From TrEMBL:
Membrane topology, record value: Multi-pass membrane protein
Annotated InterPro entries: MetI-like (IPR000515), MetI-like_sf (IPR035906)
Protein name per UniProt: Microcin C transport system permease protein
Biological classification of the source: Bacteria, Pseudomonadati, Pseudomonadota, Alphaproteobacteria, Hyphomicrobiales
PROSITE patterns linked to this entry: ABC_TM1
The ABC transmembrane type-1 domain, residue ranges: 126-341
NCBIfam families, per the entry: PRK15133.1
Chief place where the protein resides: membrane
Claim: Cell membrane is one of the keywords in the record: yes
A GO BP annotation: microcin transport
Amino acid sequence: MGAYILRRILLMIPTIFGIMAISFAIVQFAPGGPVEQVISDLTSQSSGDRLSGGGGDVLQDVGQDSAYRGARGLDPEFIAKLEKQFGFDKPPLERFFTMMWDYLRFDFGESFFRNTSVVDLIAQKMPVSISLGVWILVFSYAISIPLGIRKAVKDGSAFDVWTSGIIIIGYAVPSFLFGILLIVLFAGGSFLDWFPLRGIVSDNFDSLAWWQKPLDYMWHMTLPLITLLLSAFATTTLLTKNSFIDEIKKQYVTTARAKGLTERQVLYGHVFRNAMLIIIAGFPGAFISAFFTGSLLIEYIFSLDGLGRLGYDSIVRRDYPIVFATLFIFSLMGLVVSLISDLIYTWVDPRIDFERRDV
């Protein structure tokens, strides 16, 4: 197992390098980079000053073409200073290898527009994403796995039919629409005003008693968690049910029953170990989705300032240090979680031996 783990860790290096190289190359052809963002802000500000009778100090009628859209009329020396500030005065390959060398030392630099280090920004936004991700994983697996097993055992019964109806509705309704519905119903919309609209804690959280703080936290998290749980709950439940049904139909289950084992012994002593393999295989994707990708719209709807919102705003603003740093961190976490998933495979089913398989 040690050799397998070492090979997987070594394979992470070219994988991360490839992801970053492709993303970096795509960004080079994307219009509207950070220099263009500053130029757009300056030209917009200058237009406003002219309309109000003022004038811009940076704008000059130099009448010179520029490689940047909207830069005509700007002082070329100022453009050169912008390029140097953002590092665009160097060739792309040099910038890429410098970035990768810094990232290997976990030096992610500073944001272009927020005047703060990328690590500090991620640390500031992490509590929201951790809150959403951890609770969604806990609740979805705690509810979906027992429910999926029950549906597999009661396949075709009335219980299976009406729970399937709820699951299909939950899977079909987009989470952001369900979130808006919850706001309308329970967060001061057109009906009840039971839950807050923004943040994960109240403004007076520090002054609350120790026993009031977890209650305040859960009060703020109730609606976002219910919104995200609906789709996660549906997917995992159906996956668990189908996996258990496939295993129950196999010959070894019939043999176990013929030996006189009870249904509980057959289900949890034999079927569970094999059926859970597919659930474990989907854990890395569920982990990454719950922490990052799945919470973007929910963060906007419930005014939560987390990693999903930070990443989206950084892409729109072309804040490349944040974009590439979060991509590097998320990709690395995904590869590590995937390795952990393989190790859990061997724990659930000792018959699996990755040492004997080619990577």
